[in-house]
Amino acid sequence: MKKIYFIFLVPLFLSAQNLEELVNLSIQNKLVDSSQKSLDSIKDEYKSIKSGYMPSLDVGANHSITDKETTSVPKNSSKTYASISYELYDGGKKSDVYDSYESNIKSSEKSLEALKNDISLNVVTYYYNYLSYISQKEAKEKEIEQLDSELTRLSRFLDAGTTTEDEVQKIISRLESSKVTLQEIELELLTILHNLEYITGEKVTISAGSNVKELENNAQNDLRFDLKSLEYNVEAKLANSKSEKSGYLPTITLDNTYSYYDSNFDNKAYESNAIDHQNIASANLKWNIFSFGETKYKYESKYKDYLSLKSQLEYEKNKANVDLELAIKSYEISKLKIKSSEANLKAATTAYDVIKSKYQNGLIDNVAFLESLSEKFTALSQLKTSQNDLEIKKAKILYYSGKKLEEYIK
Fold first, then answer.
1. Alpha carbon distances (Å) from 158 to 152, 168, 177, 373
2. Half-sphere exposure for 110 (CA within 13 Å, toward CB)
3. Rounded-to-integer distance, Cα 281 and Cα 255, Å
4. Residue 76 pairs with which residues in a beta bridge?
5. pLDDT per residue as tens digits for the range 167-218
6. I need a surface site. Which of 2, 33, 102, 347 has the fewest CB within 10 A?
7. Spatial distance between the Cα atoms of 356 and 353, rounded to a whole number of angstroms
């Protein structure tokens, strides 16, 4: 029977995911796929815009019948034509449009990386919070185990008349309270698993043992991906404003149209005046001299849009510097918390061993024993929580330093 259980349990253990696997799954989810398709859409649109500036060739044909024939309008006529058109000069708008699209593409690329990094940070946080709740669960289970054992012991003493009912009830009260807390911890664990399944799009199970690499002291900080995206957006806005200035300048186009005519006259005398083909080449200039300030206001509107986004970028950069400083400070505090938790656990364990001995020998009541028991397991849980919290703090430093979190997980 044990072998059968083992066979069923092995796939569960094999399917457990570490942090690296969870992050890899999460950055391939539907939201990332949607952003990738948006990026591809912009790239295709840019190709379309560039194609639109290339020479265009059109062909066409028509057939007409008139009820009143003249020397220039036959009874039946057909026309086929081919026309080539090319915009030689558009006031410089083309280069600005190209710059705008290239900046928008770079912005979308960085936005995609920012999305992946945001998701990665969320997954890292969920992962280590899950491990912290596991440590709390284990500590609470051990506490319940101790309380159950103590309840059994006191129940025997109560039957023998060597202890009182209120002593037993105190243990029962603490035991029931611990069971409720355990259920609350189970709910938190289940919530984290559901959140990870929502992000990854798959059922997940978590295995411990992953770590986040610490950023080296001499490593250069980069601009966060979302700020890089915003920076390219600012460049695109500037290019858009510049493109509006092309309205002040002329546009020049070149056209060449070749036409072939097939004319059928009822009056044969008209046929001598008919032509069967014609080629027309033209150079065209169009210059808007006055439009009640339309071009001026368009440019000013786009330029103010650029200035607005530029101010937002400067604000976000300053905020990012503060966020990084706070993340580093928080990381240093977390290291101190670990040392404090280690000392606290050592003290709580020593105190528990002494108090347990005194309690079992009837030197102190169970109030002191229950408190020391709770403090010991709380201290154990706090140490593991502090260690997990340190990993989250390392991830936040990497995030605010503009690094790809997926490259620092082992």
1. 10, 8, 22, 22
2. 20
3. 6
4. 65, 264
5. 888 888 888 998 999 999 999 999 999 999 999 988 999 988 889 998 887 7
6. 2
7. 5
- pLDDT tens per residue, range 243-269: 999 989 999 999 999 999 877 777 666
Query: How many angstroms separate the Cα of 141 from the Cα of each of 175, 181, 357, 360?
Result: 10, 10, 22, 22
Give the C-alpha separation, 15 to 30, whole Å: 22
**CB-neighbour burial class of residue 281 (10 A; exposed 0-12, middle 13-18, buried 19+):** exposed
Question: What homologous superfamily is domain 98-249+292-408 in, according to CATH?
Answer: Outer membrane efflux proteins (OEP) (1.20.1600.10)
Q: What count of other Cβ atoms lies within 10 Å of the Cβ of residue 342?
A: 15
Q: Are 200 and 19 in contact (CB under 8 A)?
A: no
Helix axes 93-160 and 30-52, enclosed angle (nearest 10): 180
Residue type, 407: E
Rg (alpha carbons) of the chain, rounded to whole number? 39
pLDDT over 60 at 76, yes or no: yes
pLDDT at 145: 86
DSSP secondary-structure letter at 67? S
Strand ranges for 50-130 from DSSP E: 56-65, 76-89
What is the value of pTM for the model shown? Answer: 0.84
- Here the tokens at position 335 are 């290291």
DSSP 3-state helix, strand, coil percentages of the chain (rounded to 5)? 70, 15, 20
Residues 380-399: tens digit of each pLDDT: 889 999 999 999 999 999 99
Res 353: pLDDT? 87
Q: Which of 325, 285, 305, 128 is nearest to 210 (CA)?
A: 128
pLDDT at 5 over 60: no
